[in-house]
Amino acid sequence: MSSDNSRGDISIPLRNLLNSIRCIRDRVRDGESNESDSEEFDLSNFWDTMNQAVKAVSQEATKLSLAFSTPPPPPHQKSILTMSTVYYWLPKSQGLSLRRAVRDASVEVLEGVGQLVEVILASPLQSLSQEQLTSTGGVWSACDRFPSLPRDNKASVMLALSAHIGVVKDAIEEIEQALLEEEDPFSDLLGDLDEEEEPRGNQDTYWSERDRRVIGPCQGLMKASGACLRKLSSAVRTNGDAGSAQNRAQLDDLEDFTCLSLPTLNFLLLSLTPPSRSSHVCGESELTWVQFLEAAVDHNLQKAKDLMQSDP
Predict the structure, then answer these.
(1) For the whole model, what pTM was predicted?
(2) What are the residues whose beta carbons fall under 8 Å from the beta carbon of 150, sequence distance 6 or more?
(3) How confident is the model at residue 21 (pLDDT cuts 50, 70, 90)?
(4) What is the DSSP letter of 250?
């Protein structure tokens, strides 16, 4: 059999496999789970089965990569189908945050396997290229994420809150660092003026003294936002309970609320509402703190508005 015929015989099953992986990936990314009685759902059994399925995908990716360095048997997709089937076991009522985490991790594995097949298709017959080894390692890395995924909706929401707290912390630190600069904080982006040129008059490119006065209360608002997220995270950690569908839905609502605070243009306005009083995680001590926070937010917001509306 000629080399061209051998390549053709190999390419057909590989392309079929690649098309199947892409279809499965799209269904996992965009499809709905199979709803079941959430209260009877065995989350522990789900994770045991999912981890076994992901381990099988990792092992088969290795076999696939090595097999095509020699005349190969036809590829199969049993482990991929098993992993996607197990994913569909997880009902939305177990928590949207948890399901998103499992979905994103599953899609990452499927995309990694798809990339590996693409690399094999592009590689010379009976070879083991560095790119092929790298793609195999990418599948391993995606599969290795599963043991560290949050195991229930409370843990998933806690993970999201921690990430949001980090974003707010970074924003506050960037403002503070810029305020420490004695010169225009954006001068390095615009280049130095020639000696013959007059100083730049467009103050939209740097902070005026009036701008700096407004930044003070804006910093207060950002710090209040960070404090709100930290207190919310503490309340979820202490009082959060993922044992009922109602509590899991409340936890999802809290995560959705915090996601609204992250777009940069709406950051100061959308990140100020304190944790929901109707949530089971908000006890008497948290309610007192929320009232204090509301007063601090109102004070800083009004101060910022007054300064921005005042005459230059």
Answers:
(1) 0.75
(2) 97, 98, 101, 156, 158, 159
(3) very high
(4) H
